[in-house]
Amino acid sequence: MNRAERRRRAKESFVKTDPVIRSQMDKAKDELGTYYVETLMTCFALAEHEVHKFGQGRVMKSLRFIDELMGKVGSGEVTVDELKQKLADEVKVSINV
C-alpha cells in the first residue's frame, strides 16, 4: 500500500466515523432523494396531462397510487424487482436505467 492509498483510507475512515460529517452526509442524501422523487413525480404528472390530456383528478389519482406503491416498497411489503416484473408481464414494458 503506497502513501496516497494510506491517506485515502485514513480520510475515508474519518468520514465514516465522525458523527457530524456522517449526519451531514445522511441529510444531503435524504435531500437529494427527495429532490429526485419530486422531480420524477412532477415529470410523470405533466406527461399524463400533456400526452393523455389527464385533468387534475386523474393525475392526483395516479400520484396517490404511486405514493402507495412507494410506501409498500419502503415497508418491504414489495420489492422494486417485483414491481418491474409485474410491469413487464402486464404491460410489456421494461425499465432499465
Model description:
- The chain has helices at residues 3-17, 19-52, 56-75, 80-91.
- It starts with a helix and ends in a 6-residue tail after the last helix.
- The longest helix has 34 residues, at 19-52.
- It is mainly α and 97 residues long.
- The radius of gyration is 20 Å and the shape is elongated.
- The protein has four helices and no strands.
Break the fold down into its secondary structure elements and pairings.
Blueprint: H1 3-17, H2 19-52, H3 56-75, H4 80-91
Helix pairs in contact: 2-3
List keywords for this structure.
mainly alpha; 4 helices
Fraction of residues in β-strands:
under 5%
Please tell me what the overall shape is: elongated
Q: Can you give the helix content as a percent range? A: over 70%
Using only C-alpha atoms, the radius of gyration works out to 20 Å
Mean model confidence by pLDDT: 88
Major beta-sheet overview: none
Q: What distance separates the N and C termini? A: 36 Å
Count the DSSP helices: 4
What sequence of helices (H) and strands (E) makes up the elements? HHHH
Which structural category fits the helices and strands?
mainly alpha
Given as residue ranges, the uncertain stretches (5+ residues, pLDDT < 50) are none
Care to count the β-strands?
0
